[in-house]
Amino acid sequence: MNHITPTEAQALGKVGVLFGGRSAEREVSLMSGAGVLKALLSRGIDAHPFDTGLRTLAELAAEKFDRVFIALHGRFGEDGSLQGALEQLGIPYTGSGVMACAVGMDKIYTKIVWLMHGLPTPKYAVLDSGADLAKVAAELGLPLIVKPPHEGSSIGITKVGAADEFQAAYDIAAALDDSVLAEAFVTGRELTVAILGRGADARALPIVEIVAPKGNYDYQNKYFTDDTQYFCPAVLEPALAAEVQRIAVEAYRTLGCEGWGRVDVLLRESDQKPFLLEANTSPGMTSHSLVPMAARAEGISYEDLCVEILRSARLKMAGAVKVEG
């Protein structure tokens, strides 16, 4: 990938790097934002930090950014709410639009969309305080996974190995969300596929395989330890790798994602069948993050990856009328 020229950098204008925020993933977002900001500055881009957790939308409008790079994760940054505000303010932004972010942030609706398109995803049940947990355990089988459907970075996720552990797992997830997702556990290899672009031009980067200590790829093992092993490109038969990438790109497209994203996949041990877990519309950009890792495997540096994503920034809602004040 060619380096950006000074003229091209100037043409991108004043750039805001939006990071921090108010979600449970604030700490990760601070790291992502710092990395993105440093990368853009190193390419001569007029980039400025903007912590949406500490500053207001009025301040964002007053900055008069020509475009923004969204390095936020979780609620209020990855769920469509900020994207809607940016559409209102007329500020082009990186990543997916309002609808794709809102659906992608909700693991339940993501599953519904994928199943409607015939894409494979583990069996699931939506739980509330009156749910018959014993019945759900019988239907999905044990072990199973319990998670808050609107959180990321493995926050609030519990693997339930016995029926008497189900209630405690439900309580952990319910403390973080107004609904709870129970999902059949798929035994197999944990893969993730980073994707760049939109529509017919969306393309998968090399697959990453994640091997976490004792199979526990939790928040700590994602971001703050070096115990998790990553293999990129994942060692897969070429035809199987191509199929995993195809399904991931189709999953990305069906949600209407664009710019960049990541789709997590489990490859079932018994028959090598891939199952879609979730989509990330604003993936991590930290030193441990998987999209930069996949990009490096294709010869794209972290800095050039950030520039490519920034170049794709745009307003997604067509038909706005200019109002003269």
Automatic annotation (TrEMBL):
Occurrences of domain ATP-grasp (ranges): 111-311
Any GO molecular function: ATP binding
Cellular component, GO, one term: cytosol
Protein name in the entry: D-alanine--D-alanine ligase
Annotated catalytic residues: 25, 153, 289
Record's subcellular location: Cytoplasm
Gene3D superfamilies, per database record: 3.40.50.20, ATP-grasp fold, A domain, ATP-grasp fold, B domain
Nucleotide-binding listed as a keyword: yes
Record field: catalytic activity: 2 D-alanine + ATP = D-alanyl-D-alanine + ADP + phosphate + H(+)
Gene Ontology biological process terms from the UniProt entry: cell wall organization; peptidoglycan biosynthetic process; regulation of cell shape
Main location: cytoplasm
Pathway recorded for this protein: Cell wall biogenesis; peptidoglycan biosynthesis
Cofactor(s) of this protein: Mn(2+); Mg(2+)
Species for this entry: Rugamonas rubra
Protein's job: Cell wall formation.
Record text on cofactor binding: Binds 2 magnesium or manganese ions per subunit.
Swiss-Prot/TrEMBL keywords: ATP-binding, Cell shape, Cell wall biogenesis/degradation, Cytoplasm, Ligase, Magnesium, Manganese, Metal-binding, Nucleotide-binding, Peptidoglycan synthesis
